[in-house]
Amino acid sequence: MQLNYLNYGTGYPLIILHGLFGSLDNWHTLSKKFAETYQVFSLDQRNHGRSPHTDEFNYQILAQDLYDFMQQQNLTNAYILGHSMGGKTAMQFAFTYPEKVRKLIVADIAPKSYPPGHLQLIETLCTIDLKSFSHRKEIDNSLAEKVPDFAVRQFILKNIYLNDEGIFSWKMNLNGIKKNYPELNKAITTDKPFSKETLFVRGEKSPYIQNSDLELINSLFTNAKLVTIPKAGHWVHAEAPTEFYEILVNFLREN
Fold this sequence. Notes:
By secondary structure, the chain is α/β, with parallel strands linked by helices. It is built from 10 helices and 9 strands. It has helices at 28-34, 59-72, 85-96, 119-126, 136-144, 150-157, 174-184, 214-220, 236-239, 241-253, and strands spanning 5-8, 13-17, 39-43, 78-83, 101-107, 160-162, 168-170, 198-203, 224-229.
């Protein structure tokens, strides 16, 4: 698997993994900021962005993709940062290849199983015939009835592009995501907890990491700490980029 990626800056490597329906484009501004200190590799995970589409899609294979990427880049180890789905990939990677992780950062996701909260959105997206539209605004208007949240629509619309024939298409593998969606909601488990320094960052207004999850987190990540960013939601890095950056840099600089 040859993942699409962007490389920023020089220094010790920091690898960034986006969430479901996301891409490396979502991290461009923060990647440039992190690149003032680190060599940043921002990845499109499989079935997202400009990376290959496949029918296989689960956290074990996403962790294998990351391992292969590090081998291709001759990276002995790195700081690993993942948000949401990318956070679960990062956790799975840390359990499977602990020697490849210097420090782990997980943004607004716990290692537990989650209910299928995106199922209605996925079903809605699958009903849209992109090739029937001539302008992005038409797609937005079509989505608005079932997806009233403007920010969510704008996030989803970043997954649309004009192909070589001038027809609107999905960047992401929507059918592959729908088929494997139950896999993405599963818990991340291990027989051997991860003992290296780990930072969980959550948004105060996000429901994804509850106080009741801390016992599970601490049992699987024995050297973990949790930081909560006030007034931020699930897209904590986008809603509070300055605070998020400062928290992460301070964590990476420790010891």
